[in-house]
Amino acid sequence: MKPYFPMWLQQSFILLLWGLIFYLAGLTSLRFDDPESSIAIIWFPAGIAVAAFLSARWRDYPALIIIFTLANVLLDEEWKSPLTFAISVLYSFLSIPSTVIIAWVVRRFARLNDDLHIILVWIMATLVISALDSFVVGGGFAFVHDEPFIELFWQGFVADITGIFFATPIVMGFINKNAAYSASNRVSKTIGFTLWLVLCATAGVVFGHELPWVAKHATALYFGLACLPIAIVMMICIFWGNLGGSVALLTLGAIVIYFTDQHQGPFFQKSLTYTESLFLALSYLSATTLLVVFIRVVRRSTRNHDPETGRIVGNGVFYRLNASSGAFVWENDLALLLGHLEPGAFDLVDDVLQRVHPRDREKLRTHWLSCSQDKRGSMIFRIQALNGQWVTLVDKGSMRLVSDGEDIIVGNWQASRYHLALYTRVR
Which Gene3D superfamilies did the record assign (predicted)? Predict the structure, then answer.
């Protein structure tokens, strides 16, 4: 029997895990910090924060803001007195609202069931809000410390957008189970893993080994070689799915940034400063990540699904509902659709309907009551899993039968690619 953990404990663990990932991303970013610069050159925590706010419940936002603010304070080693500590808390808090606003804009204004529109809203929101944030925060910092505003603005702006463009899709590829496309067979997984090994070798040669003749006599070719890892990442994303794409991006990012920091590779040129080389490497990684994002959109749009309900082809979970007693019998493991379940949580129709979205509850009840011996059409609805997340499902082909003198409703639940719950305003 699997151990049962209370919901509040699970949610607390998830929030603290976000804080730990944020903190580790900050340590990684500060590893490449320029001592002469007042603003970090690389800032991956911005992307981690956006991913957290995109995937979290609205009610968890205050806790995440506090956790990320405290993590920022821990990353700041300059505070030595109560005054400097207070200043550190203030700056740490001011770095969070921009990520909250980006996530809110995406969740509020992205067009339902239009993946491309969601991505475009995310890109535009990141560019506009990061620019405003760099203008306000960078301008205030420049005014207080009497430093050049333009330099601080561009450095903060580039650090934020590259951190978000690179880190957010990687994290979402790991956690977004609803939208995930995964390798469906052993052959695809084997091909994906083999390509990952090729990626490690190719990126290691291009970025980690000196190619003096190419760098001196064929500079364009030297930069062109950097396109080889991008092509391999695209192939991994196709064969190995979302998870493999995130692993490939993380691997490529680690190799590129490490060797660029070691003054190696095509992005470290004698005519460029250390900061400019890192900015070039980050731009390269951000562009690669955006390509992966668009491939994911294309993969999702070509999956075999019902255009009316978004039902993804598959067996789903079959059920039998006793119309008089309201008792469910599930023929398959319902956890395949809803994740971890408490024993008996979905045994009675009233318990199930309590978890259905308020706007869909009566529609689903009517859908069952109106069943006849003929199959009824599919119905899309939202239901809340035990982890608090809303999941969009399709009740397909329910019909009423008579068994041992009792009315039995037989139906099937399947996953839908139309994630209606992401945009619900019900708290």
Answer: PAS domain
pTM to 2 decimal places:
0.73
Our measurement of the distance from residue 29's CA atom to the centroid of its chain's CA atoms, rounded to an integer in Å, reads 19
Distance CA(370)–CA(379), nearest Å, equals: 13
Q: What is the CA radius of gyration of the chain?
A: 25
Polymer length in residues for the chain: 427
The whole-angstrom separation of Cα 332 and Cα 379 is: 20
Amino acid (1-letter code) at residue 388: G
Lowest average pLDDT, out of 22-26, 49-53, 57-61, 166-170, goes to 57-61
Strands (E), 248-367: 317-322, 328-330
Of the candidates 84, 11, 92, the residue with the CA atom closest to the CA atom of residue 46 = 92
Q: Which residues contact 161 (CB under 8 A, 6 or more apart)?
A: 126, 127, 130, 286
SS3 380: strand
Query: CA 202 to CA 194: how far, in whole Å?
Result: 12
Neighbours of 269 (CB within 10 A): 15
